[in-house]
Amino acid sequence: PRDRYVVGLIGEGITASLTPAMHETEARALGLGYEYRIFDLLELGRPAEDVGALLSDAQSAGFAAMNITHPCKQLVLDLVDELDTDAAHLRAVNLVVFDAGRLRGYNTDWLGYRDGLIAGLPDASFQRVVQIGCGGAGAATAYALLSERAERLDLFDADPRRADELAARMRSRFPTQVITTLAPDQLAPAIAAASGIVHATPMGMLHHPGVAFDLDLLRQEAWVSDVVYRPLETELIREAARRGHPVLDGGRMAVGQACASLQIITGIQPDRDRMQRHFRGL
Ligand code: NAD
Questions:
Q1: Residue 136 Cβ < 6 Å to ligand 1
Q2: For the chain, which has fewer Cβ within 10 Å, the N-terminal or C-terminal residue?
Q3: d(Cα 132, Cα 159) in Å, to the nearest integer?
Q4: Residue 243 CA to ligand 1 centre (angstroms)
Q5: Cα dihedral: 249, 252, 254, 258 (round 10)
Q6: Which residues contact 16 (CB under 8 A, 6 or more apart)?
Q7: Could you report the per-residue pLDDT of 121-164, keeping only the tens digit for each?
Q8: How far is the C-alpha of 169 from the C-alpha of 22, rounded, in Å?
Q9: What is the DSSP secondary structure assignment for residue 7, as one 8-state letter?
Q10: Per-residue pLDDT tens for 62-119?
């Protein structure tokens, strides 16, 4: 452990991020000296390709680590000295730790989703999960579901190439589980047969209102999980909860990601429930 940690976040449009508050508040509760700074590429007027230069500057300045977000998570893959196995499979790095002159790359998005899923939906059946949306967040949720031994995962995306590409990568990592892609006309019957649904598109955010699928299709016992966390209570989560389905909002993943990052950076186990309560009060 260090006497004092300085950590940052590199990405675009991140000035209102809740991550600094999550890290600093929990670190203070753990008795750690900890400062979390934002490096917004748009505000700095720098292109995504400058992420390598920003990492070098942070390393020279004695930073302990850097979180990485859109649009730099793939660029960083080639910049680290050591890549965690899961991050390599996900082809995305959202945490770089500076360790004795070496850069280690991790992915805590999938860990955050997995831990939130276990805590928030402890009785969830993973017999057949349908996932809508196969972008960055969807890669992390698919990886977490399959790591938790989802028996069957059906992937759907409005852009079929996204679903095909994610399915191919997940099959090579999880060869014994059933991973399929759904054509548009296969989506409704798959939802009607699913034990759980993961929503991983931007729908439900302020500028993308609505729900990505018809809730009438759901089996009564089906659980519903949303990755969107601004707002925390999306139309999907509100309506699914009203109908009595077990729900998991996107806040669990957001907190889980921060909690896993804080643990890797400091080597100390944060109090996830305390972080969750704090986040929900922000
Ligand atoms: P992305 O652009 O990488 O992926 C979104 C995918 O959804 C795309 O492949 C797109 O084709 C697909 N899509 C869009 N509308 C669709 C629809 N109606 N039906 C089917 N597919 C559709 O975006 P992303 O980075 O994966 O982010 C998605 C959402 O997840 C955002 O709201 C983001 O804020 C949220 N997110 C949450 C967390 C968290 O910690 N909770 C982490 C990352 C992202």
A1: yes
A2: N
A3: 11
A4: 24
A5: 180
A6: none
A7: 999 999 999 999 999 999 999 999 999 999 999 999 999 999 99
A8: 32
A9: E
A10: 999 999 999 999 999 999 999 999 999 999 999 999 999 999 999 999 999 999 999 9
ipTM over 0.95: yes
Give me ligand 1 centre to Cα 139, in Å: 10
Q: Using a 6 Å cutoff on CB, does residue 13 contact ligand 1?
A: no
Tell whether ligand 1 has an atom less than 6 A from the beta carbon of residue 158.
Answer: yes
CA 200–ligand 1 middle distance (angstroms):
5
228: Cβ below 6 Å to ligand 1?
A: yes
pLDDT band with cut points at 50, 70 and 90 for residue 1: confident
Distance 45 CA to ligand 1 centre (A): 25
Radius of gyration of the chain (CA): 19
Active site residue 234: no
Mutate to test the pocket of ligand 1, among 72, 211, 227, 282 (most ligand atoms within 8 A of CB): 227
The catalytically annotated residue of 14, 34, 63, 73 is 73
State the CATH class of domain 124-245. Answer: alpha beta
For 91-146, strand residue ranges (E) read 95-99, 102-106, 129-132
Give the right CATH number for 4-107+254-281 from 2.80.10.50, 1.10.3210.10, 3.40.50.10860, 3.30.470.10.
3.40.50.10860
- Whether 20 is in the pocket of ligand 1, judged by its Cβ within 6 Å, is no
